[in-house]
Protein backbone atom coordinates (compact mmCIF):
# COMPACT_ATOMS: atom_id res chain seq x y z
CA UNK A 1 0.00 0.00 0.00
CA UNK A 2 1.33 3.38 -1.00
CA UNK A 3 1.74 5.88 1.83
CA UNK A 4 0.66 9.49 1.33
CA UNK A 5 3.41 12.12 1.44
CA UNK A 6 3.71 13.91 4.79
CA UNK A 7 2.35 17.19 3.36
CA UNK A 8 -0.60 15.49 1.63
CA UNK A 9 -4.07 16.78 2.58
CA UNK A 10 -7.50 15.81 1.27
CA UNK A 11 -10.85 17.55 1.73
CA UNK A 12 -14.30 16.62 0.46
CA UNK A 13 -17.22 18.92 -0.26
CA UNK A 14 -20.81 18.33 -1.33
CA UNK A 15 -22.93 20.72 -3.39
CA UNK A 16 -26.48 19.30 -3.20
CA UNK A 17 -28.08 21.98 -5.39
CA UNK A 18 -26.04 20.77 -8.38
CA UNK A 19 -25.72 17.17 -7.10
CA UNK A 20 -21.93 17.30 -7.18
CA UNK A 21 -19.21 16.08 -4.85
CA UNK A 22 -15.72 17.56 -4.89
CA UNK A 23 -12.46 16.21 -3.49
CA UNK A 24 -9.57 18.65 -3.08
CA UNK A 25 -6.10 17.12 -2.78
CA UNK A 26 -3.02 19.15 -1.83
CA UNK A 27 0.42 17.54 -2.23
CA UNK A 28 3.76 19.34 -2.45
CA UNK A 29 1.98 22.66 -2.97
CA UNK A 30 0.05 21.34 -5.99
CA UNK A 31 -3.73 21.34 -5.86
CA UNK A 32 -5.96 18.83 -7.64
CA UNK A 33 -9.73 19.17 -7.62
CA UNK A 34 -11.71 16.04 -8.51
CA UNK A 35 -15.37 16.76 -9.21
CA UNK A 36 -18.09 14.16 -9.72
CA UNK A 37 -19.72 16.33 -12.43
CA UNK A 38 -18.89 19.35 -14.53
CA UNK A 39 -21.39 21.63 -12.78
CA UNK A 40 -19.21 24.75 -12.19
CA UNK A 41 -18.52 27.35 -14.85
CA UNK A 42 -15.10 29.05 -14.92
CA UNK A 43 -16.25 31.94 -12.73
CA UNK A 44 -17.60 29.57 -10.04
CA UNK A 45 -14.40 27.50 -10.17
CA UNK A 46 -12.32 30.66 -9.61
CA UNK A 47 -14.55 31.67 -6.72
CA UNK A 48 -14.29 28.19 -5.18
CA UNK A 49 -10.47 28.30 -5.39
CA UNK A 50 -10.37 31.73 -3.71
CA UNK A 51 -12.69 30.46 -0.96
CA UNK A 52 -10.46 27.41 -0.39
CA UNK A 53 -7.36 29.59 -0.12
CA UNK A 54 -9.07 32.12 2.14
CA UNK A 55 -10.16 29.33 4.50
CA UNK A 56 -6.70 27.74 4.54
CA UNK A 57 -7.57 24.53 2.70
CA UNK A 58 -5.05 25.21 -0.08
CA UNK A 59 -1.89 27.37 -0.20
CA UNK A 60 -2.51 31.12 -0.21
CA UNK A 61 -0.44 31.39 -3.39
CA UNK A 62 -3.38 29.87 -5.32
CA UNK A 63 -5.83 32.52 -4.13
CA UNK A 64 -5.36 35.05 -6.94
CA UNK A 65 -3.72 32.97 -9.68
CA UNK A 66 -7.07 32.47 -11.38
CA UNK A 67 -7.38 36.22 -11.96
CA UNK A 68 -4.09 36.33 -13.87
CA UNK A 69 -5.01 33.40 -16.12
CA UNK A 70 -2.83 30.77 -14.42
CA UNK A 71 -4.97 28.86 -11.98
CA UNK A 72 -2.25 26.58 -10.62
CA UNK A 73 -5.00 24.09 -9.85
CA UNK A 74 -5.79 20.97 -11.85
CA UNK A 75 -9.52 20.24 -12.31
CA UNK A 76 -10.57 16.68 -13.12
CA UNK A 77 -14.09 15.41 -13.73
CA UNK A 78 -13.93 11.93 -12.23
CA UNK A 79 -16.39 9.83 -10.22
CA UNK A 80 -14.00 6.93 -9.59
CA UNK A 81 -12.71 8.40 -6.32
CA UNK A 82 -16.21 8.19 -4.87
CA UNK A 83 -16.07 4.38 -4.71
CA UNK A 84 -19.10 2.69 -3.19
CA UNK A 85 -20.15 5.62 -1.12
CA UNK A 86 -23.52 5.81 0.60
CA UNK A 87 -26.18 6.98 -1.86
CA UNK A 88 -27.27 10.60 -1.77
CA UNK A 89 -30.61 11.50 -0.17
CA UNK A 90 -32.09 12.03 -3.64
CA UNK A 91 -31.14 8.49 -4.72
CA UNK A 92 -32.47 7.01 -1.47
CA UNK A 93 -35.74 8.93 -1.88
CA UNK A 94 -36.22 7.69 -5.48
CA UNK A 95 -35.47 4.08 -4.44
CA UNK A 96 -37.95 4.26 -1.56
CA UNK A 97 -40.61 5.72 -3.86
CA UNK A 98 -40.11 2.91 -6.39
CA UNK A 99 -40.33 0.28 -3.65
CA UNK A 100 -43.47 1.83 -2.16
CA UNK A 101 -45.12 2.17 -5.59
CA UNK A 102 -44.42 -1.47 -6.42
CA UNK A 103 -45.79 -2.65 -3.08
CA UNK A 104 -48.91 -0.48 -3.46
CA UNK A 105 -49.54 -1.80 -6.98
CA UNK A 106 -49.11 -5.43 -5.88
CA UNK A 107 -51.46 -4.89 -2.92
CA UNK A 108 -54.09 -3.24 -5.13
CA UNK A 109 -53.91 -6.11 -7.63
CA UNK A 110 -54.29 -8.78 -4.94
CA UNK A 111 -57.14 -6.89 -3.25
CA UNK A 112 -59.01 -6.53 -6.55
CA UNK A 113 -58.68 -10.27 -7.18
CA UNK A 114 -59.82 -11.07 -3.66
CA UNK A 115 -62.88 -8.80 -3.72
CA UNK A 116 -63.92 -9.77 -7.23
CA UNK A 117 -64.03 -13.38 -6.12
CA UNK A 118 -61.53 -14.50 -8.73
CA UNK A 119 -58.14 -15.86 -7.89
CA UNK A 120 -56.78 -17.16 -11.15
CA UNK A 121 -58.91 -19.91 -12.70
CA UNK A 122 -60.63 -20.72 -9.41
CA UNK A 123 -63.92 -19.13 -8.46
CA UNK A 124 -64.19 -18.33 -4.78
CA UNK A 125 -67.69 -18.57 -3.38
CA UNK A 126 -69.96 -20.77 -1.34
CA UNK A 127 -69.57 -24.49 -1.86
CA UNK A 128 -72.34 -26.14 -3.88
CA UNK A 129 -74.94 -27.97 -1.86
CA UNK A 130 -74.47 -31.70 -1.75
CA UNK A 131 -77.43 -33.71 -2.81
CA UNK A 132 -78.04 -37.05 -1.10
CA UNK A 133 -80.02 -39.70 -3.04
Account of the 3D structure:
The longest helix is centred in the last third of the chain and has 28 residues, at 89-116. Strand 3 (30-35), helix 1 and strand 4 (73-77) form a beta-alpha-beta unit. This protein folds into 2 domains: 9-82, no CATH class; 89-119. By secondary structure, it is of the alpha+beta class. The chain is rod-shaped, with a radius of gyration of 29 Å. The strands form 2 sheets. The chain has a 4-stranded mixed β-sheet, with no helix packed on it. It has helices at residues 42-54, 89-116, and strands at 9-15, 20-27, 30-35, 73-77, 118-119, 122-123.
Secondary-structure map:
Elements: E1 9-15, E2 20-27, E3 30-35, H1 42-54, E4 73-77, H2 89-116, E5 118-119, E6 122-123
Parallel strand pairs: 3-4
Antiparallel strand pairs: 1-2, 2-3, 5-6
Query: Which secondary-structure class do the elements indicate?
Result: alpha+beta
Largest sheet: 4 strands, mixed
**Residue share in β-strands:** 15-25%
Unreliable spans are: none
Fraction in helix: 25-40%
Q: Could you tell me the number of beta strands?
A: 6
How would you write the strand order of the largest sheet? 1-2-3-4
Mean pLDDT comes to 79
Whole-Å distance between the termini?
89 Å
The total domain count is: 2
Specify the number of helices.
2
Shape: rod-shaped
Order of helices and strands: EEEHEHEE
Q: What Rg is obtained from the alpha carbons, in whole angstroms?
A: 29 Å
